[in-house]
């Protein structure tokens, strides 16, 4: 009988040691999981800046002029895409070719082709030539006319690096065409 008790004692000791080791590993795993941050090894987090201010995802840039510079920090490997963004507040009528549309017909459509992007040392520059030109470029050069449209956010720009995405909302002006200045009326 003493041999059986000794075997049970050794078996319980081995099981106890295994359970204690599993608990210690689990506690260490939980501590590491809840105390580590997801920052890149360089310590710099992915951020998009406009006019020197860091923009959080979902921010509105407002009216975005052509030739605007954005700074990207924490990544040199990123992509930029622009999508049409429609809400009841920014829906309007336009004509593409001979066909009537509303801005809602374009909602969610990739409009990146309507903009020019140029990489800079610190980020990128966005150039555009007004709303009608943007839509025309997306529609393979078709003539686009829009009489009036609200100057509220109508585009969503995604700046994406790996799993991190910053979404920015903005609007643009119509291009300025057909304006002439009577030089004889200019007084100095």
Any overview of this molecule?
This protein is α+β, with helices and mostly antiparallel strands and 188 residues long. The protein has two domains: 1-36; 47-171, no CATH class. The protein has two helices and twelve strands. It has helices at residues 2-35, 131-138; strands at residues 47-50, 53-55, 59-63, 68-73, 79-84, 93-96, 99-102, 116-119, 123-127, 144-145, 155-161, 164-171. Strands 2-1-4-9-8 form a five-stranded antiparallel sheet, with no helix packed on it. Strands 3-12-11-5 form a four-stranded mixed sheet, with no helix packed on it. A three-stranded antiparallel sheet has the order 7-6-10. It is elongated and about 115 Å long. It starts with a helix and ends in a 17-residue tail after the last strand.
Summed up, what is this model?
The protein is of the alpha+beta class and 188 residues long. The chain contains two helices and twelve strands.
Query: How would you sum up the major sheet?
Result: 5 strands, antiparallel
Counting copies of identical and different chains, the oligomeric state is: single chain
What percentage of amino acids are in beta strands? 25-35%
Helix and strand composition category: alpha+beta
Give me the side-by-side strand order of the main sheet.
2-1-4-9-8
């Amino acid at each position: 009988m003493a041999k059986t008790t000794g075997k049970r004692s050794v078996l319980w000791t081995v099981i106890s040691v295994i359970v204690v080791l599993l608990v210690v590993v689990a506690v260490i795993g939980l501590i590491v999981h809840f105390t580590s941050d997801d920052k890149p090894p360089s310590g710099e987090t992915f951020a998009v800046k406009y006019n020197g201010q860091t923009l959080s995802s979902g921010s509105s840039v407002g009216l975005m002029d052509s030739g605007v510079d954005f700074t990207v920090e924490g990544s040199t490997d990123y992509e930029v895409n622009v999508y049409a963004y429609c809400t009841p507040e920014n829906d309007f009528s336009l004509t593409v070719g001979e066909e009537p549309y509303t801005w809602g017909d374009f909602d969610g459509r990739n409009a990146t082709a309507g903009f020019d992007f140029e990489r800079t040392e610190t980020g990128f520059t966005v150039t555009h030539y007004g709303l009608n030109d943007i839509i025309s470029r997306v529609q393979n050069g078709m003539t686009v006319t829009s009489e009036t449209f609200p100057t509220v956010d109508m585009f969503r720009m995604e700046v994406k690096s790996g799993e991190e995405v910053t979404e920015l909302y903005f609007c643009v002006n119509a291009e300025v065409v057909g304006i002439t200045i009577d030089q004889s009326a200019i007084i100095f």
